[in-house]
Write a structure and sequence with these properties.
about 160 residues; alpha/beta; 4-stranded parallel beta sheet; 3-stranded antiparallel beta sheet; 4 helices; globular
Protein backbone atom coordinates (compact mmCIF):
# COMPACT_ATOMS: atom_id res chain seq x y z
CA UNK A 1 0.00 0.00 0.00
CA UNK A 2 2.83 2.41 0.83
CA UNK A 3 4.53 2.06 -2.55
CA UNK A 4 1.20 2.32 -4.38
CA UNK A 5 0.49 5.64 -2.68
CA UNK A 6 4.06 6.88 -3.25
CA UNK A 7 3.70 5.95 -6.94
CA UNK A 8 0.72 8.28 -7.10
CA UNK A 9 2.78 11.16 -5.65
CA UNK A 10 5.53 10.55 -8.19
CA UNK A 11 3.09 10.31 -11.10
CA UNK A 12 1.29 13.50 -10.07
CA UNK A 13 4.58 15.39 -9.76
CA UNK A 14 5.66 14.21 -13.20
CA UNK A 15 2.28 15.10 -14.72
CA UNK A 16 2.75 18.65 -13.41
CA UNK A 17 6.24 18.70 -14.96
CA UNK A 18 7.91 18.55 -11.57
CA UNK A 19 11.04 16.53 -10.98
CA UNK A 20 11.11 13.65 -8.54
CA UNK A 21 13.97 11.49 -7.28
CA UNK A 22 14.31 8.32 -5.22
CA UNK A 23 17.15 7.88 -2.70
CA UNK A 24 17.50 4.26 -1.61
CA UNK A 25 19.55 2.82 1.21
CA UNK A 26 21.15 -0.62 1.07
CA UNK A 27 18.69 -3.39 0.33
CA UNK A 28 15.87 -0.90 -0.26
CA UNK A 29 14.44 -0.35 -3.72
CA UNK A 30 11.09 -0.53 -5.42
CA UNK A 31 10.23 -3.02 -8.19
CA UNK A 32 10.50 -0.88 -11.37
CA UNK A 33 7.75 -2.65 -13.37
CA UNK A 34 5.25 -1.87 -10.59
CA UNK A 35 6.02 1.86 -10.69
CA UNK A 36 5.89 1.85 -14.50
CA UNK A 37 2.49 0.11 -14.39
CA UNK A 38 1.32 2.89 -12.04
CA UNK A 39 2.14 5.50 -14.67
CA UNK A 40 5.51 6.68 -13.32
CA UNK A 41 7.96 7.63 -16.07
CA UNK A 42 11.03 5.68 -14.97
CA UNK A 43 13.22 7.44 -17.54
CA UNK A 44 12.47 10.71 -15.72
CA UNK A 45 13.01 9.31 -12.20
CA UNK A 46 16.61 9.52 -10.98
CA UNK A 47 17.42 6.77 -8.48
CA UNK A 48 20.41 7.21 -6.17
CA UNK A 49 21.70 4.23 -4.22
CA UNK A 50 23.34 5.16 -0.91
CA UNK A 51 25.53 2.78 1.10
CA UNK A 52 24.00 3.85 4.43
CA UNK A 53 21.44 6.19 6.01
CA UNK A 54 23.84 9.07 6.80
CA UNK A 55 25.05 9.20 3.19
CA UNK A 56 21.44 9.02 1.97
CA UNK A 57 20.66 12.04 4.15
CA UNK A 58 23.64 13.94 2.68
CA UNK A 59 22.39 13.11 -0.82
CA UNK A 60 18.93 14.39 0.14
CA UNK A 61 20.55 17.57 1.47
CA UNK A 62 22.37 18.12 -1.85
CA UNK A 63 19.28 17.47 -3.96
CA UNK A 64 17.12 19.72 -1.76
CA UNK A 65 19.69 22.54 -2.00
CA UNK A 66 19.41 22.41 -5.80
CA UNK A 67 15.79 23.57 -5.53
CA UNK A 68 14.98 21.45 -8.58
CA UNK A 69 12.74 18.75 -7.14
CA UNK A 70 9.04 18.66 -6.39
CA UNK A 71 9.26 15.29 -4.60
CA UNK A 72 12.15 13.41 -2.95
CA UNK A 73 11.62 9.89 -1.65
CA UNK A 74 14.08 8.91 1.08
CA UNK A 75 13.94 5.13 1.54
CA UNK A 76 16.47 4.16 4.22
CA UNK A 77 16.62 1.92 7.26
CA UNK A 78 14.81 2.80 10.46
CA UNK A 79 17.53 4.77 12.20
CA UNK A 80 16.51 8.28 13.16
CA UNK A 81 18.56 11.20 11.92
CA UNK A 82 20.12 13.68 14.36
CA UNK A 83 17.86 16.63 15.15
CA UNK A 84 20.21 19.12 13.46
CA UNK A 85 20.09 17.12 10.21
CA UNK A 86 16.31 16.79 10.39
CA UNK A 87 16.01 20.54 10.94
CA UNK A 88 18.21 21.28 7.93
CA UNK A 89 16.32 18.88 5.63
CA UNK A 90 12.92 20.18 6.71
CA UNK A 91 14.04 23.79 6.25
CA UNK A 92 15.39 23.09 2.77
CA UNK A 93 12.24 21.21 1.79
CA UNK A 94 10.07 24.12 2.94
CA UNK A 95 12.31 26.72 1.29
CA UNK A 96 12.15 24.98 -2.09
CA UNK A 97 8.55 23.72 -1.82
CA UNK A 98 9.66 20.09 -2.01
CA UNK A 99 7.74 17.16 -0.58
CA UNK A 100 10.32 15.12 1.33
CA UNK A 101 8.86 11.66 1.93
CA UNK A 102 10.66 9.19 4.17
CA UNK A 103 9.60 5.56 4.06
CA UNK A 104 9.87 2.98 6.77
CA UNK A 105 9.26 -0.74 6.86
CA UNK A 106 6.72 -2.39 9.18
CA UNK A 107 8.26 -2.88 12.59
CA UNK A 108 10.61 0.12 12.33
CA UNK A 109 10.31 3.00 14.78
CA UNK A 110 7.07 4.91 14.38
CA UNK A 111 8.66 8.26 13.62
CA UNK A 112 11.74 9.80 12.08
CA UNK A 113 11.60 12.59 14.65
CA UNK A 114 9.65 15.50 16.05
CA UNK A 115 9.97 17.60 12.90
CA UNK A 116 7.86 15.22 10.81
CA UNK A 117 4.81 17.19 9.71
CA UNK A 118 2.75 14.24 8.51
CA UNK A 119 2.99 10.64 9.64
CA UNK A 120 0.65 8.12 8.15
CA UNK A 121 -0.10 4.44 8.46
CA UNK A 122 -0.92 2.49 5.33
CA UNK A 123 -2.98 -0.60 4.92
CA UNK A 124 -4.38 -2.69 2.14
CA UNK A 125 -7.07 -5.29 1.76
CA UNK A 126 -8.36 -7.29 -1.17
CA UNK A 127 -11.73 -6.16 -2.54
CA UNK A 128 -11.78 -8.34 -5.67
CA UNK A 129 -9.81 -10.93 -7.60
CA UNK A 130 -7.13 -8.46 -8.70
CA UNK A 131 -8.24 -5.33 -6.85
CA UNK A 132 -6.97 -3.94 -3.56
CA UNK A 133 -8.04 -0.97 -1.46
CA UNK A 134 -4.91 0.95 -0.41
CA UNK A 135 -5.49 3.31 2.46
CA UNK A 136 -3.61 6.00 4.34
CA UNK A 137 -4.60 7.17 7.82
CA UNK A 138 -3.01 10.33 9.19
CA UNK A 139 -1.54 9.49 12.58
CA UNK A 140 0.10 12.92 12.98
CA UNK A 141 -0.57 16.02 10.90
CA UNK A 142 0.72 19.47 11.83
CA UNK A 143 -1.28 21.19 9.09
CA UNK A 144 -4.73 19.81 9.83
CA UNK A 145 -6.50 17.59 12.33
CA UNK A 146 -5.00 14.08 12.36
CA UNK A 147 -7.22 11.10 11.78
CA UNK A 148 -8.18 11.87 8.19
CA UNK A 149 -8.05 8.99 5.74
CA UNK A 150 -7.49 8.50 2.03
CA UNK A 151 -8.30 5.33 0.11
CA UNK A 152 -7.89 4.35 -3.50
CA UNK A 153 -8.44 1.16 -5.45
CA UNK A 154 -5.42 -0.39 -7.13
CA UNK A 155 -4.96 -3.48 -9.25
CA UNK A 156 -2.33 -5.97 -8.19
CA UNK A 157 0.67 -6.58 -10.42
CA UNK A 158 0.76 -9.56 -12.75
CA UNK A 159 1.54 -12.75 -10.87
CA UNK A 160 0.26 -11.46 -7.52
CA UNK A 161 -3.41 -12.24 -8.06
Amino acid sequence: ATLSLVARLLREAQEQEGLAAWIAGPGRLFFPPDLAASGVDLAALPVVRAPDAPKAARIADTLLRSGSFAVLILDVDGQAFPLALQTRLVGLAQQHHTALVTLRQPGERASRGSLVSLRGATQQHRVGHDCFACGLRAVKDKRQTPGWTHEELRHGPDGLC
